[in-house]
């Protein structure tokens, strides 16, 4: 008797339970399946959501966008879907196209670009009335970047799950796990982090006012830290090495132009690094990033060093100019003395020629001739003695005038060169002290300061 009953039951079991369930539920023709499934429409429909980050594709500082690939799971109860698995060969769940049933109009509030991933066209229905839907999305979302400590920064980006049109009175979202479980699960599923390291995820529920109605929102906050090693090696260290080269330029001689050209080249190199930094950081930052202060500070210190080099070269050149001026004066004085000596020789000739003047008297011609000869001889001797004394007096006057001019206009030889060397030494110690304090304070802020 029992065996016969089992045989009849086997004959009555359908070979196509899927079609039988579809026919039983009347999914293709029942329009009620397309409306919000609620037993009492005055009460909300609860949607249980779960989200995980599969990949961190990119974080664009300039655009302030966060590009990620996310996995979203939703579960809700549909009052139209119930069947007894015993009547359908033990079938307790099945997959149907999403077009046959109502599903929540879920959206990510921060999303700014249309999803490029292929949507999941199926949903899973259970015999107890629960419906599950899983989808993968490539999300390009807005994210307010905090770049004060770049490249040692930590970013917090949020993804808010909410309904497009349903208010909180009709649709409510709820999440399954706490923050610890969400973080552990996300780390297990994460396949790509790019240049970022996932610190953790938090989830919370809020009721927010949107368009004069409250909406239920589940907010996921992704906390991630930048891997800064590449920026340190490719940017911070090269700028610091350029600054060390600027310090090393103090051993180069200031007497020639090599030091000036070397420092100008270093200044141009730092300018190029600043242009590269300008292409990385956004212009809409609320505060000046420390890396910008670092570059501007290094640039300013090198600019002051360049100005000091120009001043030292000017002082040294001033000494060289005074030496050339002194040589020109000595040359002109020697030429003037030569001209005066020539004039003196001409006067001597004139005086000698005039010495033949004679006086007419009553004495005989022979006496007059002898007297004239004696007078002429004595006059020539007196004039000769006076002429011998004249060059000595003239040379002494010239020497006195030169000494007076040198004392009045000139200092000791190489005076400005010694001043320039002392100034260079003092500036070097001040420069090293200020630079060290600047770098120590800046790096301490970089390590200890919180993101603003």
Automatic annotation (TrEMBL):
Signal peptide: none annotated. The chain crosses the membrane at residues 229-248, 260-277, 289-316, 425-447. Gene3D superfamilies: Neurotransmitter-gated ion-channel ligand-binding domain, Neurotransmitter-gated ion-channel transmembrane domain. It is a multi-pass membrane protein. GO terms for molecular function: extracellular ligand-gated monoatomic ion channel activity; transmembrane signaling receptor activity. Residues 26-227 form the Neurotransmitter-gated ion-channel ligand-binding domain. SUPFAM superfamilies: Neurotransmitter-gated ion-channel transmembrane pore, Nicotinic receptor ligand binding domain-like. It catalyses: K(+)(in) = K(+)(out); Ca(2+)(in) = Ca(2+)(out); Na(+)(in) = Na(+)(out). One of its GO terms (cellular component) is postsynaptic membrane. Residues 236-443 form the Neurotransmitter-gated ion-channel transmembrane domain. PROSITE patterns: NEUROTR_ION_CHANNEL. Keywords: Cell membrane, Disulfide bond, Glycoprotein, Ion channel, Ion transport, Ligand-gated ion channel, Membrane, Postsynaptic cell membrane, Receptor, Signal, Synapse, Transmembrane, Transmembrane helix, Transport. It comes from the Eukaryota. It is found in: Postsynaptic cell membrane. Belongs to the ligand-gated ion channel (TC 1.A.9) family. Forms serotonin (5-hydroxytryptamine/5-HT3)-activated cation-selective channel complexes, which when activated cause fast, depolarizing responses in neurons. This is 5-hydroxytryptamine receptor 3A.
């Amino acid at each position: 008797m029992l065996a016969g009953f089992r045989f009849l039951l086997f004959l009555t079991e359908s070979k196509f339970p899927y079609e039988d369930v579809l026919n039983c539920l009347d999914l293709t023709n029942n329009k009620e399946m397309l409306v919000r499934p609620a037993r009492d429409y005055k009460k909300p429909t609860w949607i249980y959501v779960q989200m995980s980050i599969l990949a961190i594709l990119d974080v664009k500082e300039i655009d302030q966008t966060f590009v990620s690939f996310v996995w979203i799971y939703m579960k809700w109860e549909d009052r139209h879907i119930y069947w007894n698995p015993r009547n359908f060969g033990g079938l307790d769940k099945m997959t149907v196209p999403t077009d046959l049933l109502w599903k929540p109009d879920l959206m990510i509030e921060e999303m700014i670009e249309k999803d490029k991933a292929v949507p999941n066209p199926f949903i899973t229905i259970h015999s107890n009335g629960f419906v599950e839907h899983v989808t993968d999305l490539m999300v390009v979302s807005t994210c307010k970047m905090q770049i004060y400590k770049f490249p040692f920064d930590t970013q917090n980006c949020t993804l808010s799950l909410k309904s497009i049109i349903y208010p909180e009175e009709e649709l409510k979202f709820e999440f399954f796990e706490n923050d610890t479980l969400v973080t552990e699960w996300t780390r297990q599923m994460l396949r790509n982090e790019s240049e970022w390291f996932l610190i953790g995820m938090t989830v919370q529920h809020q009721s927010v006012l949107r368009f004069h109605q409250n909406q239920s929102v589940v907010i996921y906050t992704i906390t991630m830290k930048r891997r800064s090693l590449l920026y340190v090696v490719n940017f911070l260290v090269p700028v610091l090495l350029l600054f060390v080269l600027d310090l090393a330029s103090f051993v180069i001689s200031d007497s020639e132009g090599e030091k000036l050209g070397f420092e100008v080249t270093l200044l141009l190199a730092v300018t190029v690094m600043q242009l590269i930094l300008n292409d990385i950081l956004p212009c809409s930052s609320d505060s000046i990033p420390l890396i910008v202060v670092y570059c501007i500070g290094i640039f300013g210190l090198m600019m002051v060093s360049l100005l000091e080099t120009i001043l030292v070269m000017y002082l040294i050149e001033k000494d060289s100019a005074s030496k050339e001026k002194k040589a020109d004066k000595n040359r002109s004085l020697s030429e003037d003395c030569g001209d005066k000596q020539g004039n003196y020789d001409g006067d001597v000739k004139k005086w000698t020629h005039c010495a033949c003047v004679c006086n007419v008297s009553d004495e005989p011609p022979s006496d007059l001739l002898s007297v004239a000869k004696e007078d002429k001889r004595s006059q020539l001797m007196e004039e000769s003695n006076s002429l011998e004394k004249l060059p000595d007096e003239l040379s002494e006057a010239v020497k006195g005038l030169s000494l007076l001019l040198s004392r009045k206009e000139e200092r000791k030889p190489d005076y400005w060169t010694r001043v320039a060397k002392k100034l260079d030494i003092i500036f070097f110690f001040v420069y090293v002290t200020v630079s060290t304090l600047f770098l120590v304070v800046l790096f301490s802020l970089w390590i200890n300061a919180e993101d603003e």
